[in-house]
């Protein structure tokens, strides 16, 4: 059985997808970009600012699913420019203090709305 995850504390899906699905005790969260949940506007112009907003959006989806950053088992991070990796990593590390997930980080040619960062997560959920 698949349980859909939706929260008003994260941006609405801007296409034919959901914020996340829970299957067999795992949350598969759609990639989050730095959009403000209420306005849908891009937050920040730097990689640090945008990563902070992305992590807020991810945290909201995790909370709605009954999970947290401590339960994230895998992240995939898409960066517009790998030159931003060190600055991105500084902010990212703040979300994962007690537990480190597996991670992939790749540079991509373009992201939705021409943002600088997108992050998707897989996390375990509390039963």
UniProtKB/TrEMBL annotation:
One Pfam family recorded for the sequence: Ribonuc_L-PSP
Domain of life: Bacteria
SUPFAM superfamilies tied to this protein: YjgF-like
Family of the protein in this entry: Belongs to the RutC family.
NCBIfam families per record: Rid family detoxifying hydrolase (TIGR00004)
PANTHER family, A to Z: 2-IMINOBUTANOATE/2-IMINOPROPANOATE DEAMINASE RIDA, 2-IMINOBUTANOATE_2-IMINOPROPANOATE DEAMINASE
Protein name stated in the entry: RidA family protein
Organism: Enterococcus larvae
Lineage of producing organism: Bacteria, Bacillati, Bacillota, Bacilli, Lactobacillales
């Amino acid at each position: 059985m698949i349980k859909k995850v939706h929260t008003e504390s994260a941006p609405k899906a801007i296409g034919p997808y959901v914020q996340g699905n829970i299957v067999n005790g795992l949350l598969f969260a759609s990639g989050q970009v730095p959009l403000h949940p209420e306005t849908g506007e891009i937050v920040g112009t730097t990689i640090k600012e945008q990563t902070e907003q992305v992590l807020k959006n991810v945290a909201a989806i995790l909370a709605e699913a009954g999970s947290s950053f401590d339960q994230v088992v895998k992240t995939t991070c898409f960066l517009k420019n790998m030159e931003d990796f060190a600055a991105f990593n500084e902010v990212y590390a703040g979300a994962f203090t007690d537990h480190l997930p597996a991670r992939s980080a790749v540079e991509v040619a373009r992201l939705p709305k021409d943002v600088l960062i997108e992050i998707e997560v897989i996390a375990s959920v509390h039963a």
